[in-house]
Amino acid sequence: MEFINLVLNSFSLLLSPQILIYVVAGFLIGTIFASIPGLTATLALALLLPLTYSLDVSTALMACSSIYMAGMCGGSITATTINIPGAPSSMMTALDGYPMQLQGKGPLALGHAAFGSMVGGALGAILLIALAPFVAEVALLVKTTGKFSLLAFAIIVIVIAQRGKVVKAGMAACIGLMLATVGLDAMEPMTRFTFGSSELTAGLDLMPMIIGTFAISEILIQAKSNGCAEKMVDALKKIKICRRDFIPPLSEIRKVGLMCYLKSSFIGYAVGTLPGAGGSMGSFLAYAETVRTSDEPETFGKGNPKGIVASESANNAVCGGALVPMLTFGIPGDPVTAIMLGVLVINGIQPGPQLMSGQAELIAPMLASLVFSALILIPLTLYLLGPYFIKIVAIRKDILYGIISLLAVVGSYVATFSTFQMMMSLVMGILAYYLRKHDFPVITLLLGFILGPNLEEFLRRSLSLSNGNPMTFFTNYDSLFFVILTLVFVYFLAIKKPMKKPY
Amino acid sequence: MLLNKNIIFYFLLFFLSVGYFVVAINLGAPVVNNGLQPSAFPLLIGLFAMMFSSILLYREIKLIKSKGSCLAVDSEINETASIKDRLAPFAIMLSIFLYILLFSPLGYFLSSLLFVLSIIIIFSSVDKVIQKIIISTVIVAFGYLVFEQMFNVRLPALWG
């Protein structure tokens, strides 16, 4: 209850014009990035990460959470109007949104997407606020051996969640773990893998890692796909959107039914809590469940508004869910929460169970911003600026990537004012580019890098406490719990037959 | 071409894993007095990396063998990708590399102007250069406003 009061009090921070500007600007940037196919909220966060140096942690996290929420709903605009999802999480929205557009019901589809995003985002954030303190209390019970098993669980689940490319995901995670071992050893005064370079003694910085992996690699990938941009701009010229398109009539909302909103939001939230799942999986599962329980499953994929609502409610509810493991255990569930974790680390704050109990005043404003973004900014932004997003999407690609390149490369200079970090960003960008080109999921690389130091430290401490006996991971109940959980996930994600795609 | 490139990439990953593992061995004994030493974790990671890269390599070799000659695939792929598209990522890598080298000596404005102009040209074409120079100047000025004026980041100047 104390934490809920803290969050409620944090809403007053939004009355400060400076903070409100950062939150609103973050939301607008997130929506713009999510609505432009090829750009994502992750890229927006990676580019803006260096700027968080000059902000206080709470304000930076508030802006990050509004970008996160915006990133989930912005993609629905192009998914519905031209069948090109602006963000991967809006893929399922396009299945029913675009057929509705073709039937002349485009405005209604946009309205359902906006309202679904609002409901899902708000429910996810409220569930997070209500449940996170309890999870954090439970997290405090996890001791050293349990912490190792938990981190191992997170990495294994993220790897096996990459269906069809588990070996590649494992390799990418190993590269991330390898990079995490560069520099001074955490427990003994000894440097590793520095090859005599004094600049590597402190290890690799998180900032060039994030900018390289998500921004520079994206620029390199987009350089190869110039052709489809012109077709997209042509398609966009034919589309006309009005403000009122983003408000669905009450009768249409009733037709969809409250259960569809609630069930999809809960599915999205639950999926979000799993490491590596993300918005795409959340919307896919919610969509599949809506089709499964529908009386008329044959109408899905042909313009059923329930499909749009299920997808958008779920992907926005994922935001709340994904923040649970990040805030309570220090385990990011997706690239956005990994970057948000980076904001904490860069500011010298150690994420984990102690964060919620010891520094809840830093976290509460972020959650207030998440609710504010869902309830106020989603409807307001889409209503006021929705029609203009179509024009923004049609921005010249050369100018867009000129701006992004400048922000990415100069951004990596900001951390240490050294060109060495800029060079590291380039190296990481080239590595991530080749990995992505060969279909390796770079999220596992980043998570390996972020979780690596703690994974090693807890492994060594656990074995040191047990006098080198590896059975300690099975005899301690907290550790055993995560070992069993890992086995359960391995069974369901890697051994059991995957669920059939609805379409 | 693609299949060959895959093989080369997987070989590189395999060599990277082996190299990492060898360096980890040279860090010393992994276990001393029942306690893990700094080399233990890297050895474990190196082993996993070698295992994953070997599987990828094995699968790729098996795929090539099952498809017979990869030359047919080569020609198909070559037709679909234009030379400009294939060279664009390398041109960007070179642009960023040169930008980083020139960032301190030339200062923010001049180096950034050249960099942004090069990126714009890579993403479009060499025509309407004057217009592109003007756009680049506006972008660089925007970057200056964001970093130096809004967020108080001290950027290098030509005069030191």
Automatic annotation (TrEMBL), chain A:
It comes from Psychromonas aquatilis. Residues 20-447 form the DUF112 domain. The chain crosses the membrane at residues 20-48, 60-82, 109-136, 148-164, 170-187, 362-384, 399-420, 479-495. This is Tripartite tricarboxylate transporter permease. Coiled coil: none annotated. The keyword Transmembrane helix applies. InterPro entries: DUF112_TM. It comes from the Bacteria. PANTHER family: TRICARBOXYLIC TRANSPORT PROTEIN. Keywords: Membrane, Transmembrane, Transmembrane helix.
Automatic annotation (TrEMBL), chain B:
Keywords: Membrane, Transmembrane, Transmembrane helix. This is Tripartite tricarboxylate transporter TctB family protein. The lineage of its organism: Bacteria, Pseudomonadati, Pseudomonadota, Gammaproteobacteria, Alteromonadales. The chain crosses the membrane at residues 7-27, 39-58, 96-123, 129-147. InterPro entries: DUF1468 (IPR009936). Residues 11-156 form the DUF1468 domain. It holds the Pfam family TctB. It comes from the Bacteria.
